[in-house]
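This part of the workshop introduces the protein records we will be handling. To make this concrete, we reproduce a full record directly below:
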Amino acid sequence: MKFAHAHNLVYLSYMKQIIFFAKLAALMFVCAPTNALAASTTTLRTTTQASSFKPKTAAGSNAINALYLRCKLTEQAYKTSFATVLNNLNIDGTQPSFDIAITTGHGLVGADGKFLKNCFVSYPGGKPLPIKGMKLAPNFKPGAPSDWAVLILPRVKNKHLVRYSVSDKLSQKAIATLAEKKPAVLFATARGIPVNGQHCTIEPRRDAGLKHDNFIGFLAHTCRAIAGQSGAPISVLQGHEPLLIGLHIGNSMVYGYPTIHTPLHYRGYMRGIDAEFMDQFSKLLASMQISDNK
């Protein structure tokens, strides 16, 4: 089938989104520093990893908050990242035979900018699953707000897989304003295991040294991330419903912020899942073709 729209994604209702973000903003603690920005130097690095493929078990929890994404580099090594699965239903409420996931674009391409071959997803204790389709974001550039991609996967038949709802009402301006309050979020443990074991915060992108307008769409976060965690979800809970806030892209190494005397420190940075992102995502998804053979 060819996707005409992305309406089969599960969105929070409009009123739920308004109430949720109002409560979230009201409960957040201290605002970001108001110091004028001092001169600073920032080094960005994405967090895919070349490694041997050795699946790990999710100790202490049955939840699977993301899928491992591996692309073969050599006979022994793989480029490693994560894929975040979205809550996807047919119009009539039934489950389709496929899953829709988002990930970083840089985890799918080689040094020449072309798609790597022999990519697959898996989860702890599960067998590798092929990727049925993938497409890079418009104007894809590694380490930029366009560093993301859409994956079409066979339906993952594991009841512990977390599929994320999304908001299509949160503008880039609104989510940037929210980040000033430094709200608490959930992120995977910094051991490469796809289980949400961290409670951290999101912050304005300037906290990761990303002050230029080229970085609009990014947010900073305080979650600890290691190589191989690009594409991991940053989320909050609306009741018991997981809501995707951002997609981890990489880490920044920052000197001289918020003052010139501030020592070297690290921040993660993520692509915010805002209304502008969802508009691009919907158009990209509509251009992809997949047969829904049950």
Summary: The chain has two domains: 14-44+164-276, 50-161+280-286.
